[in-house]
Amino acid sequence: MDGTVADRRLNILAVLSLFVVGCGHTPTVQLTGEQSRVSLPADGSIAITNVMLVDVASGARETAVTVVTKAGLIADIGRGISIPREMVRVDGAGKFLIPGLWDMHSHHQGELLGPEIVASGPILDDAPPEFPFRRRVTSAEEAREAVRDLKARGVDFIKVHDHTPREAYFAIAEEAPRLGLPFAGHVPIKVTVEEAADSGIKSIEHLANFRVFTECSPEGAYSAVRCQPRFDKLAAKGIWQTPTMAFFRALPEVFSGQPLPHAEYASDALLKLTRKNAEASQLDEQALLSIRNLSKASLAAIHDLHSRGSRFLAGSDGLVPGFGLQDELQLMTDAGFSPLQAIQTATINAAKFLGREKTQGTIEVGKRADFVLLEADPLTDISNLRRIAAVLVRGRLLSRPEINRIISAHRRTLPNS
């Protein structure tokens, strides 16, 4: 039910274009009301002043901080910083600054100043012909050849799926690390979750279509006691989990004819992919009811996986980018994560997963200037992530009025709306 050429890993809330306002010799962005464009200094330097800085590693908050960016990087953080008159200033009084958010499982490409994408290339499996975005492998040798070819083409990792043949899967598990590529994705139908963990898979998507907890709950209801040995093994092996809860909550309703959540902001390509998935799935009402029930049960399983030491990433899969990620983080708290722990799945955890802790994931000097400026504290209520005052991507600024204009320009009228 999912697949794409540029599959996932993107910094979703760092988007689009530059927007600031000038005032005398010291440009200052007041993040309310209408504004007009002005030129930035040549080095793109910006100072966010008097802001509450949120440390997503510890949960600490530092008040009345100034964060200075230059050439897309964080140049200085502190109080009493001398700010040149020509530098653009953003008034952060009463606002909260967090790192840019990463959607760790999505199916979209950016244009111009858009999301940064870490891409897998085509899925390696032997799915039916109507499944898109595949490179079909039927043997170990074909799998090894495909990995070598994708490495030469510059992919960032290898993705496996439900229909990856067992022999091909284990060949990928050997060849990809040999070439310096991680591999991740679904646990193939003919491979057990334990075998996948032992093989070195880096992350498991969708709780392996719920198999992570259903296979250790043979009575039909989730059993924390029976699943504990499996959960401990997954944690010990360092396997990341990307549960995509919001996607599976939406899937039965969409496949029953309801619109995709936030469909008014969906691209034509996403709506087409959703229609094709619904047509190809051929899920009957009993199957859709099963997905609904398993989605509810997954909250307890996710809580227990997390408490046993598994690390989590936030991904929206086939939902509308940005909106779907916010829905996913809300569900993280429904599964028992604190707001801080939920935010970590889309910030510092993502950076650790990708080996980018030194350059991204937290707000520190020398790291990339990817921020979200919020109107209220996200550590007290995760829904405050939706109260966006501004976004910075690689040091470029979008204020709320410009965000509103962009959203309005892309909003479509849905049938029967």
CATH homolog superfamily of the largest domain: Metal-dependent hydrolases
The CATH architecture of the largest domain can be given as Alpha-Beta Barrel
Number of domains: 2
Strand content: 15-25%
Mean of the pLDDT scores? 87
Lay out the secondary structure.
Blueprint: E1 8-11, E2 28-29, E3 46-54, E4 61-70, E5 73-78, E6 88-91, E7 96-99, E8 102-103, E9 117-118, E10 123-125, E11 134-136, H1 140-153, E12 158-160, H2 166-178, E13 183-185, H3 193-199, E14 203-205, H4 206-209, H5 211-214, H6 224-236, E15 240-242, H7 245-255, H8 268-281, H9 285-307, E16 311-312, H10 323-334, H11 339-344, H12 348-353, E17 371-374, E18 388-393, E19 396-399, H13 400-410
Parallel strand pairs: 2-6, 3-6, 3-7, 10-11, 12-13, 14-15, 15-16
Antiparallel strand pairs: 1-8, 1-9, 3-4, 4-5, 7-17, 17-18, 18-19
Characteristic key phrases:
single chain; 417 residues; alpha/beta; Urease, subunit C, domain 1; TIM Barrel; 2 domains; nine-stranded mixed sheet; three-stranded antiparallel sheet; 33% helix; 18% strand
Protein architecture, described:
33% of the residues lie in helices and 18% in strands. With 417 residues, it is an alpha/beta fold. The relative contact order is 0.17. It contains 13 helices and 19 strands. α1 packs parallel to α2 (166-178), α6 (224-236) packs across α9 and α7 runs antiparallel to α9. The protein has two domains: 13-101 and 361-410, Urease, subunit C, domain 1, CATH 2.30.40.10; 104-353, Alpha-Beta Barrel (TIM Barrel). Strands 2, 3, 4, 5, 6, 7, 17, 18 and 19 form a nine-stranded mixed β-sheet that branches. A three-stranded antiparallel β-sheet has the order 8-1-9, with no helix packed on it. A three-stranded parallel β-sheet has the order 14-15-16.
